Amino acid sequence: MDCENGADTSTRKRKLCRLVALSFALLCILQATLNISLRLAFYSSDTTTTPDCEAIIKNLTKEEDIKMNELARYIQRGWIYFKHSLYYVSSTENTWKDSREDCLQRGADLVIINSREEQNFIREFKNRTWIGLTDTEKEQTWKWVDGTTPTISFWDTDEPNSYGGNDEDCGEIYFYERENSWNDAPCDTKKVWICEKNL
């Protein structure tokens, strides 16, 4: 009786293996058919619907060359490249408004910090610097210069606070030695600033 059960189990295992192998073979045939169909559809000889691949490649190469040349020009003028943006750190100090005006004249704006990685990059300049953050429109409603509200923030403990009853409506990197380094400050004080230009 044990022998019969052993033979029966062995037969079932062989049948199951054959079924799995057959299913796998059918899947392979289906995949090959699908690949061929898609390739034929993509490489159809109908030129009215198929773009000229060589023209597209040449155009992309030309666009890349233009971007690389633009990037090189900015770097020669003292800008720093980081994660698809260019950053300019001023060598002089100015008010928040005049700092922003300088950035705008350079085709940029005061820096907008969107990630921990960017925050840590900005801190590396080891300077008190204006950033593009302000609550001049509505007290305690902080917005970036592009009108968006911060999705991530790095305020120091108890900041922003309009310390001593002062009108502190502009954001700065103050405590650059630590990650939570943002501080609110009076906009008419003079500090170094950082411009950001997205590529």
Automatic annotation (TrEMBL):
The keyword Amino-acid biosynthesis does not apply. PROSITE patterns: C_TYPE_LECTIN_1, C_TYPE_LECTIN_2. Keywords: Disulfide bond, Lectin, Membrane, Transmembrane, Transmembrane helix. GO terms for molecular function: carbohydrate binding. Residues 82-196 form the C-type lectin domain. It holds the Pfam family Lectin_C. Gene3D superfamilies: Mannose-Binding Protein A, subunit A. Coiled coil: none annotated. CDD domains: CLECT_DC-SIGN_like (cd03590). The chain crosses the membrane at residues 19-42. The keyword Membrane applies. This is C-type lectin domain-containing protein. It comes from Astatotilapia calliptera (Eastern happy).
